[in-house]
């Protein structure tokens, strides 16, 4: 059997953390078994589905590296097929037309609630002769759900879930306007797409019971079900914006590398021994649905951030530059020149251990992309008194005499000069930092000298001295 999984988002909002994790688990399981990972856009609710939300889903999945197989399936394009299946159920006697008015239904619901029954529809049209149908009323089509016994879904994560059939309504399959309901569409699509494993949020667990009844009524083979627990906020409450329940794009914009987000999401409710840091490829080799935990996991931004710092440190320098460059260009308001790019290439390796996100890194690395003459910040200006300038002049002299420039050569020249003048190196380093970077905080001063090179370094010092 080829494993076929799917991610079936409704494009009504952003691709949030929970959705992304569902997609990831489906992706991992399909990859683990050499199967297919499908994407189905459940866009039947025309009023709530937006192009923007679709784009957010595509972009978010691609950014995470969760490439789906084949073309996405748009549920809205399959309405005819859903209607056909409703008709097929009618002909099999497994569905019927119901002509109840909204008022009648409201009365039934009230009565059912009084009785404490879960069956809100009393089955009025279930066994009635079609000749009794009122004229001019467009019926809905309801499923003739079993009245007796129980329905059991053997869920891989939740175990056996049992519902007494007398608690379930004859659900609507086709509305009076002929449009199919979610419950029908999902089953028909999962069947037609040959989905073998339905892995999704446990908010769909009760739906699985009803869906199973539909599979049985059609005589279709059931997929395996796995309903994964919700993601909670760090305080154990339902995840909200306050907890970081943001769109995946917000994490991208905040500069979290996708591999960090994927790694984090994979660990949110699933584990492979004590492994904390692993790639999506490794997880694809390990992933088993049975290893998904049964209790809800808590979102922890601190953990995500520390993974982000880890992946930044490990990131290949060329890739890192590609990621940081646009962020710096954004800050500068223009594209980088060749010279700025070179400096960035020279400076980034020394900086990448200092930042937790790409955004932070781009902020620190900006120092290599600012052009002289610099505008020193307030602290820097305060520091540049006449005494400091005298130290700077000393540094200039020592640096100008360096013949073969390097970080180490610049350091040696400065140390000697400080020593000869009976000065503490720090006293020289601070004004030098201000001259080179325009600020009082920067990476090691020798590192900065190494990146700027001799001519640029001397010119920056001269800008301050003149
Ligand atoms: N479209 C549904 C949702 O976004 C998911 C349906 C399913 O996975 O079966 O919640």
Could you please describe the fold and organization of this structure?
The structure is a single chain. This protein has 466 residues and is mainly alpha-helical. Helices cover 49% and strands 11% of the residues. It has 18 helices and twelve strands. The strands form five sheets. Strands 1-2-3 form a three-stranded parallel beta sheet. A three-stranded antiparallel beta sheet has the order 4-5-8. Strands 6-7 form a two-stranded antiparallel ribbon. α3 crosses α5 and α8 packs across α10. The protein is elongated and about 110 Å long. 37% of the residues are buried. Bound molecules: glutamic acid. Residues 8-10, 42, 186, 200, 204 line the site of glutamic acid (GLU).
Main attributes of the structure:
49% helix; three-stranded parallel beta sheet; binds glutamic acid; three-stranded antiparallel beta sheet; 466 residues; mainly alpha; 18 helices
């Amino acid at each position: 059997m080829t494993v076929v999984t799917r991610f079936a988002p409704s494009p009504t909002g952003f691709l949030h953390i929970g959705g992304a994790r569902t997609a990831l688990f489906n992706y991992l399981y399909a990859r683990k078994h050499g199967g297919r990972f499908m994407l189905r856009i459940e866009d039947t609710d025309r009023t709530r589905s937006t192009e923007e939300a679709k784009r957010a889903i595509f972009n978010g999945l691609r950014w995470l590296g969760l490439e789906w197989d084949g073309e996405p399936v748009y549920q809205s394009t399959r309405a005819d097929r859903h209607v056909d299946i409703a008709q097929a159920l009618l002909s099999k006697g497994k569905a019927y037309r119901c002509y109840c008015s909204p008022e009648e239904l409201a009365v039934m619901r009230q009565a059912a609630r009084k009785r404490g029954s879960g069956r809100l529809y009393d089955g009025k049209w279930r066994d009635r002769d079609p000749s009794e149908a009122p004229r001019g009323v467009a019926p809905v089509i309801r499923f003739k759900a079993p009245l007796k016994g129980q329905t059991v879904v053997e869920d891989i994560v939740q175990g056996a879930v049992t519902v007494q059939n007398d608690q379930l309504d004859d659900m609507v399959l086709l509305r009076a306007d002929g449009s199919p309901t979610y419950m029908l569409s999902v089953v028909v699509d999962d069947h037609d797409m040959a989905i073998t494993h339905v892995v999704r949020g446990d908010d769909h667990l009760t739906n699985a019971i009803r869906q199973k009844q539909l599979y049985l009524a059609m005589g279709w083979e059931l997929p395996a079900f796995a309903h994964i627990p919700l993601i909670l906020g760090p305080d154990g409450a339902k995840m909200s914006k306050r907890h970081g329940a943001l769109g995946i794009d917000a994490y991208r914009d905040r500069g979290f590398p996708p591999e960090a987000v994927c790694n984090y999401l994979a660990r949110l409710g699933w584990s492979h021994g004590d492994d904390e840091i692993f790639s999506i490829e490794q997880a694809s080799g390990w992933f088993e649905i049975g290893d998904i935990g049964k209790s809800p996991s808590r979102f922890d931004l601190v953990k995500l951030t520390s993974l982000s710092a880890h992946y930044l440190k490990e990131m290949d320098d060329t890739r890192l530059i590609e990621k940081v460059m646009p962020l710096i260009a954004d800050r500068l308001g223009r594209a980088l020149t060749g010279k700025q790019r070179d400096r960035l290439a020279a400076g980034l390796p020394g900086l990448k251990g200092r930042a937790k996100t790409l955004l932070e890194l781009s902020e620190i690395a900006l120092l290599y992309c600012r052009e002289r003459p610099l505008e020193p910040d307030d602290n820097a200006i305060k520091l540049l008194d006449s005494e400091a300038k005298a130290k700077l002049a000393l540094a200039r002299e020592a640096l100008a005499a360096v013949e073969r420039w390097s970080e180490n050569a610049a350091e040696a020249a400065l140390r000697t000069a400080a020593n000869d003048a009976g000065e503490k190196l720090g006293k020289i380093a601070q004004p030098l930092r201000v001259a080179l970077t325009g600020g009082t905080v920067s990476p090691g001063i020798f590192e900065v000298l190494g990146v700027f090179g001799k001519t640029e370094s001397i010119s920056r010092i001269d800008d301050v001295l003149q």
